[in-house]
Write a structure and sequence with these properties.
alpha+beta; 9-stranded antiparallel β-sheet; 198 residues; 39% helix; rod-shaped; 9 strands; 2 domains; Immunoglobulin-like
Length: 198
């Protein structure tokens, strides 16, 4: 009887020791697995601000090196030129000047035709200015020479796709229009309210 009681107590304590040692092993393994650099969530949290810093550097580089031309630094001079610009438009209207531009593919010849009333004298040289709608760094300035009565030609520039403002001027007058650049040849009618025509 005493022997059987002793065996039961011994079996109980053996089970307790095995359970206790297993719990200790689980605690150690859990501590080993919870080292911070082995946790994926830690790296996810670190990568969010790190990627923000990288993108900030990229955007800063683009802002410094790109020429967007959206801001002008001579507002006062621009304001002083408004009256002179209106006078040039009025002079073109008094001469009843009408014009047409033939724009071919990039590298081809640009042809301009001009006509006016009896008081209008066609100049030897006219300036064709192409202003990009948002990026002044892409603007083009062409000098066209007269090759026949009311006809001017020059080598055609390559225009980036998008909206452009066209201005033809000489001898204190100007004509203006708008166009949408493409690889397809275009015919642009010039006047105070000129508009592109295919």
């Amino acid at each position: 009887m005493v022997g059987s009681e002793w065996k039961r107590k011994r079996a109980f304590w053996d089970r307790f020791r095995r359970h206790d040692s297993g719990f200790a092993l689980n605690v150690k393994s859990h501590r080993k697995a919870s080292i911070w650099y082995r946790e994926p969530m830690v790296w996810l949290v670190i990568m969010i601000p790190f990627s923000a810093v990288i993108m900030g550097g990229i955007l800063l580089t683009l802002a410094v090196w790109s020429d967007d031309g959206l801001v002008t630094d001579d507002y006062y001079k621009k304001g002083l030129q408004i009256n002179r610009t209106l006078e040039r438009d009025a002079l073109a209207a008094s001469y009843e000047i009408a014009g047409e531009i033939m724009l071919g593919a990039p590298g081809e010849v640009v042809e301009v035709s001009l006509a006016g009333n009896a008081q209008f004298q066609a100049p030897e040289i006219v300036h064709l200015r192409l202003f990009h709608a948002t990026r002044s760094g892409l603007d083009r300035d062409l000098q066209l020479r007269r090759v026949a009565a009311g006809r001017y030609v020059a080598s055609g520039p390559r225009l980036e796709p998008g909206a452009w403002h066209v201005q033809l001027d000489a001898d204190g007058w100007r004509l203006k229009a708008r166009l949408s650049a493409s690889d397809v040849p275009q015919r642009v009618t010039l006047g105070s309210t000129g508009s592109p025509a295919q």
